[in-house]
Amino acid sequence: MTMNTERRWDRIGVAVVVLLLITGVLVYAYTHRHAAPPTPVPAPPTATTPAVPAGALAVAAGDSSEAEKQTAVYQCDGVDDQAEIAAALAAVPTDGGIVVLLGGTFHITDEIVLPTGTTLLGQGPDRTTIEVTGYYKPLILSNNNCTLGGFKLINRGFVLVTGSHSTVHNITATTFQTGDAEANGAFFVFAKNRVVEDVEFRNCIAVDCGIHGFNVNGDGAPKTTKNLRYIDCSAIRCGNADSSAVWTTGFDFHESNDLIGLRVIRCLAEDNWESGFHFEPGGQVTPRTQSEDIVMEDCISKDNGQRNTLPESFFKSGYFIHRTAVLTNCTSINNQNCGFWTWGGDAVTFNNCTDDGSANAFSVGRTSEEITYNNCVSTNATKRGIYSFAATKIAFNNFSLVTPKNATGSISLGYRDGDAEKQYPVTDCTFDVTCTGVDPATVVMEKDTLRNTMNIR
């Protein structure tokens, strides 16, 4: 069949265009085969703008950037920087004001006291550092309605709260790593002849401290700590063999103080020298200290006591609990002694709490009574899933014992380690336990038990 002339020329034209394109590509490749790749153009640096609220007084460190120094009302020189900070705090209005610390390191050799109603803020722990030297030189919230936050605290610095209605937030403290531990905690609440109430710690971290991460205590009359809140706070590796504070814990909430109203929400205690979370309400104190309305939710306590090989050490547990507390959805992992240890306790409830890999997952003893465990789980306990002695009216409701390491005695009742000859009766208790990975017929070891209801399956 003969192709008409118009279609033939169309095809010739397309072929010519394709040939020209191929030729152009080959020529470009040949002429550029040794050419260096284009040099990338760097993006212009982003200037860090300090966060200075309207009306605030800015204080620059000796090593702040030049741009920051130009915005500052007060300029530190790196020596006794508390003088400039104190001057700024004194210059804010008497009804309250804001002092902002800019980026850099402030070198402090004396205490800093926040006036009533004032706020002292850094640029965040990654940009503002306060280094404290000297003996007992805290940042003090002794007045009411104060706010402190936004910096890293190092060397021998700590926060001391003796006033009320205050907030401490977004502070990372690494302090008292060696030498005498004159402070009780990196974050320390102390009620001496007063009531300290309505204090909140939020997003605060104590890490690699030679003292308690968080401590609450009191003395005199009254000595009440009331309505304290710890939200999203962490205590990590607090305590070490070189510290003079040999009983260091992550969070120590109750010693000689009266504790009325405590909320601990989503907090972490990890790899601390003794307990992760600790309540030891002054057994030696007369009259007996008060404990009321204590709530912990969604907390994690792991690896506590593992570094501590001192023979006289005693606690080394995830949660050391006493009185009138409710723990919900709290987790214990791989703590050296106990996961959840109730000692001399009464009116304590555990809801949906779990332990994985601690020696004694749930321990209750020394005249404890009215302790309730609802839907709790022990997994991989290296000694015992339930360890109870000298206890009465204890209820384990719908408890799960999963793959304990010991087939015999994973539920131990009436025995106490190191003192097998004395009587430690366990009476009027309920044990409703489902076993997984172990024979229910072998798990219970008991002596001096009376009027207990046992449902082990």
Mean pLDDT: 90
Number of helical segments with 4 or more residues:
3
Structural class: mainly beta
Q: Whole-number radius of gyration?
A: 32 Å
Q: Detail the poorly predicted runs.
A: 1-47
Our estimate of the beta-strand percent is: over 45%
Q: How far apart lie the N and C ends? A: 93 Å
Proportion in helices: under 10%
Shape: elongated
How many DSSP-defined strands? 35
Oligomer: single chain
Major sheet details: 35 strands, parallel
Textual characterization of the structure:
The protein is mainly β and 457 residues long. It is built from three helices and 35 strands. It has a 35-stranded parallel beta sheet that branches. Helix 2 links the parallel strand 1 and strand 2 (74-75).
Task: Give a summary of the structure in a few sentences.
With 457 residues, this protein is mainly β.
Topology diagram in text:
Layout: H1 5-31, E1 57-60, H2 66-71, E2 74-75, H3 82-91, E3 98-101, E4 104-108, E5 112-113, E6 119-121, E7 128-132, E8 139-141, E9 147-155, E10 159-161, E11 166-175, E12 185-202, E13 205-207, E14 212-231, E15 234-236, E16 251-254, E17 258-265, E18 268-270, E19 277-279, E20 291-297, E21 300-302, E22 319-323, E23 325-328, E24 331-333, E25 338-351, E26 354-356, E27 360-374, E28 377-379, E29 384-402, E30 411-413, E31 426-427, E32 430-436, E33 444-446, E34 449-450, E35 453-456
Parallel strand pairs: 1-2, 1-3, 3-6, 4-7, 5-8, 6-9, 7-9, 8-10, 9-11, 10-12, 11-12, 11-13, 12-14, 13-15, 14-16, 14-17, 15-18, 16-19, 17-20, 18-21, 19-22, 20-23, 21-24, 22-25, 23-25, 24-26, 25-27, 26-28, 27-29, 28-29, 29-30, 29-31, 29-32, 30-33, 31-34, 32-35
